[in-house]
Amino acid sequence: MDTTLGVGLIGSGFVSRIHAESLSACPRARLLAVASRSTARAAGLADRFGIPEAVNDYRALLERPDIDMVVIGVPNDLHGPIVVDAALAGKQIVIEKPLCLNLAEADRMIAACRSARVKLMYAEELCFAPKYVRLKQLADSGALGALTLIKQSEKHDGPHADHFWDVDRSGGGVTMDMGCHAVEFFRWMLDRPPIRSVYAQMSTQVHGNRTRGDDNAILIVEFANGVVGMAEESWTKPGGMDDRAELFGSAGVAYADLLRGNAIETYSAVGYDYAVEKSGSTVGWSFPIYEEAWNYGFPQEMAHFVDCVLDDLVPRVTGDDGRAVLEVIFAAYESARTGRKIALPFSSDARRPIDLWKPA
After folding, report:
1. Residues 243 and 154 sit within 8 Å (Cβ to Cβ)
2. How is domain 127-297+324-357 classified at the CATH fold level?
3. 216 Ramachandran zone, left/alpha/beta (phi>0; psi -120 to 50)
4. Is the entire prediction scored with pTM above 0.85?
5. Is the model's pLDDT at 360 over the cut of 80?
6. Which of 19, 33, 36, 35 is nearest to 67 (CA)?
7. pLDDT 10s digits, 242-268
8. Which CATH number describes the domain made up of 5-125?
9. Residue 308, CB-side half-sphere exposure with 13 Å CA sphere
10. Deepest in the core among 7, 37, 55, 220, taking most CB within 10 A?
């Protein structure tokens, strides 16, 4: 009896390469095929990771009976239709963040998966990053007392792919792209209490020639238990990825730098091949990361999702969590437009976040 899971990748860009690397190292997974509109990129990914088949239509993956689970890493505007198609085909589903472009679409995706009795697993890697997992263990143990404030920030100089800059495809700017990490980080760290309100400030400081979306944002999320979450997001920070968290409690405080504490302090007069994600130059002082994907939590995330399917476990992060994150993101864009604190629950029908902040 085969005790491994047949997996297909839908998408061939940056995040799909990370997923291919993670799944290739997972002993319970068999990476069988990759689908992408770019035949060349799909073939390149297949060749690099020894994936047996590369196709240019994801429906070919859905027709294969030996593929049990699909991992979807495509532009945001394609998430909804592909998830529904995958559910109708009976495939278990891992979907990249953000879940989709609007709450109505999120509801259709979740309903399709429930009707088909397949798992919809939301790929929020911060819930698997080893340093943040340890941070949560400290909080859960009472080491910091009663938590009062959580901060999380993610900053770099902008997205990998052009579709992120196009709000018609992405739905928004840096808040949609990276704010979703912070919101789910807060929810997970606190064991997902209800959210009372969201207040946000957003601006387009540097990239106004490339996007109608925000490239800097601050979000303040108030939870029903009194804890406040503060998210700082930026597409304007040069010099590589920055990902940090801080927990403040009645009996202590903890700081976690996801990457810098795991880097090698280096000076090079000539530069070298690679330091860390988004690093524009390696000349002079730099901080090359080691085991980068492991530090982010990607291999642990994929191994967990494979286990969830094979052992019928409840995923650590689900499609319902992805929807809850979207609701906060939508409220944040409304807050940034109106200058008001927005109470939850918040309904935005079929609009995109950018339509709330900068109506077309």
Report:
1. yes
2. Dihydrodipicolinate Reductase; domain 2 (3.30.360)
3. beta
4. yes
5. no
6. 33
7. 999 999 999 999 999 998 888 877 888
8. 3.40.50.720
9. 20
10. 7
φ, ψ of residue 48 in degrees (nearest 5): -65, -40
Q: What is the pLDDT of residues 263-294, one digit of tens each?
A: 877 888 888 888 888 777 888 888 788 888 99
Q: Where in the chain is the domain with CATH 3.30.360.10?
A: 127-297+324-357
111 contacts: CB under 8 Å, gap ≥ 6: none
Backbone angles phi and psi of 252, in degrees to 5? 175, 180
Parts of the chain belonging to CATH 3.40.50.720: 5-125
Residue 23's SS3 state is: helix
For residue 241, give Cα distances in angstroms to 85, 130, 196, 237, 348: 34, 17, 31, 8, 32
**Euclidean distance between CA atoms 286 and 264, whole angstroms:** 8
